[in-house]
Amino acid sequence: MRSKVLIVDDDEILRSELRDFLEGEQVIEAESGEGALNILRRVNDIGVVILDVMMGGVSGLDVLNAIKKDNPKLVVIIVTGTSSKDTAIEALKGHADDYIEKPINVKRLKDIVERFLDGESLCEINYHGIKNKIQRVKNFVERNCYKKIRLNDIAAEVSLSPKYLSRVFKQQVGMDFSDYRLNIQMDRAKNFLVKSDYNVNEVAEKLGYENSQSFSSQFKKITSLTPTAYRNKVQKKKRR
Questions:
Q1: Which residues face 187 on adjacent strands?
Q2: What is the pLDDT of residue 124?
Q3: Which pLDDT score is estimated for 83?
Q4: Between vectors from CA 48 to CA 42 and to CA 52, what angle results, nearest 5°?
Q5: Which residues have C-beta within 8 Å of that of residue 194, sequence separation ≥ 6?
Q6: Residue 105 contacts by C-beta under 8 Å, 6 or more apart in sequence?
Q7: By the 8 A CB rule, do 170 and 178 touch?
Q8: Please, which residues have CB within 8 angstroms of residue 43's CB and are 6 or more apart in sequence?
Q9: Can you spell out the DSSP letters for the chain?
Q10: pLDDT for 197-212, tens place per residue?
Q11: How far is CA 3 from the centre of its chain?
Q12: Has this prediction a pTM greater than 0.70?
């Protein structure tokens, strides 16, 4: 089962048409940037976002920046209604993965979506049975590591019981699911500390921790440094 596609556009008719053209894919819709961000804050298995630039409220480019700031691996395809290349350039500067202009060439859009979703599953070509499900679990964790993920959530996505998934995950990956998630989460924390101006409390909140103390304790467990000490160490190296 492939990841889902999120269509973000304030035009209900266009959303419906795109859903029809993407027949065979699992599609979710949002009519605004705010609605899209609310959907993405929840645990999900969204692999591609099709995002209109011109919407009321939060603009598409602002939504793009918010997505890529918190979840840089999520694929975002920008849809622009202007013939100018300026919007596309700004989108690509914001790390959009591709863009397409209106009126939409639906065949090209479908090809782009399939390319990204197929690319997500290339690692599964040489695997069979449980191994491709474990890879899917790993992909899911990478997309949702800053959310409160339960093993039950992922087990349901790959149609396995939580107890069985826990056992085979450790067999295949070499560590418990919780340890794998923590390592991925701390890698994301390092990225926030180095590449953003979030303070420790904000990083902890971004990663779903109730307080900075518990986050700092877990971070030190993995890196042997507090978040502040890690940031200072990296910044000191950059100044040399």
A1: none
A2: 43
A3: 54
A4: 95
A5: 231, 234
A6: none
A7: no
A8: 144, 147, 148, 149, 153
A9: -PPEEEEE-S-HHHHHHHHHHTTTS-EEEESSHHHHHHHHHS---EEEEEEES--SSS-HHHHHHHHHHH-TTSEEEEEE--S-SHHHHHHHHTT-SEEEESSP-HHHHHHHHHHHHHHHTGGGTT--THHHHHHHHHHHHHHHTTS---HHHHHHHTT--HHHHHHHHHHHHSS-HHHHHHHHHHHHHHHHHHHS---HHHHHHHTT-SSHHHHHHHHHHHHSS-HHHHHHHHHHHHH-
A10: 899 999 998 888 889 9
A11: 11
A12: no
φ, ψ dihedrals at 5, nearest 5°: -115, 130
Question: Residue 143 corresponds to which amino acid?
Answer: R
Q: Six-digit token pair at 56?
A: 């009321």
Residue carrying structure tokens 């040399």: 240
Neighbour tally for 181: CB within 10 Å: 21
CA angle in degrees (0–180, nearest 5) for 177-66-200: 60
